[in-house]
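Z., the sequence and structure:
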Amino acid sequence: MLINKLIKGDLKVMNKIENKYIELFTDYIARIKEEKLSDEGNCSISIKVSDTSAIAIIDISADTVVKENSYKEINFNETLSGELEIHRTIFLKNKDANAIIHAMPHNANIVGKLNIKSFPTLLDDTAQIVGISTKISSNYAKVLKRRTACVVPNGGIIACGSSLYSAYVATLVQEKACKCFIDVTVIGQYKKIPTLEALLMNFIYKKKYSKVNDDFAVTKKEGIINCSDKEMELRVAVKEAGVKLVQSNLVQGTWGNISIRIDDKHMLITPSGIDYLTLKPEDMVVMNMETKEYEGNIKPSGEKDIHMGILLSRPDINVVMHSHPSECSSFAAAHKSMPVISEDMHKYVGGAAEISKYGLPSTKSLAASTVEAMQGRNACFMANHGMLAVGATIEDTFRTCSVMEESARAYLKQLAGGKTREEIAKARYFFS
């Protein structure tokens, strides 16, 4: 048994470590299936367990159940075959990789069949997490030295990261980028993020935000514990809304943010760069919207200026949600607005969904243009960034997010005129 080779000592310790890997594999296999990342073929995942070895689950299928000894060993010093060799090669070439996911989602498989070598970054989360462009290459080990994910011709997505969590998020973001790249062909010409700005986003993410979640877990910073019952109810509600956004794939990883009004001067907002699933209610940050001061030692979201600007300019609403849903992201990438296409959109959005002007994340220019785009409506697209929704309650705001995503899906289908995704991709009307 691999664990017995790696660890000498008490049997209870070995069993505990064995169970840890079983739980990790089981958790992420369930996530892969739930998000349909294995719809187009078998997937595989692996975890590095020492400087010279890793363990992997190969050929994930609908009935895969992880049991003791069901994983395979990858010895970095021995040439292997098939899927195991793919993982071994990536671990050898990328010393920072501690986990790998090879997924087979629908949109990446379509892009992998096109006669292209790359496409530019259209969304800021792709720039930050994946890299300054999406590569379509069979030389995945080389590509993954500079990126966290790539599309393999006829072979889905291969992603790596410092943990299974980061590899999984990179997989989700890369698949969304592929979907967006296909969808913009029926909306209009895409507006790519300037290369230097994409490079800057990627650099800042690697140096700062990619480590925030791990550092938070290690340092166990304490949030605000002593507060009124009313405030604690708001904290719990924000926490639950964040989890719901993740479970609905309206955000990926630590992206997106939520705020709620406490009173005329104060708001509660999610912290910067921390996974919603690990956040506790006491970790939410109280901010003074007039002075921009915040309580405690946990930093608020980098998009706090957007939240403050909207809450101060819109006394009729109490909640702001910024998300990165896949359908809406196509309109954000194309810098296109969306007309009212349903009764629900008229009811919850209050009009056409406008597009804000492009701005770098966490900048005053992005905040100002978003506040402007939100005037007279309850949702808007944020150029190359995502979508923002507001409401009187968390329930109303989440419903608005859902209506925006449903409306974007329906409108894209209408624009496609009955063409399949494969037909749309092959036509490549606006590809460059």
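Residues 195-219 form the longest helix (25 residues). Residues 2-199 form a domain with the L-fuculose-1-phosphate Aldolase fold (CATH 3.40.225.10).

Let me know what you think.
H.
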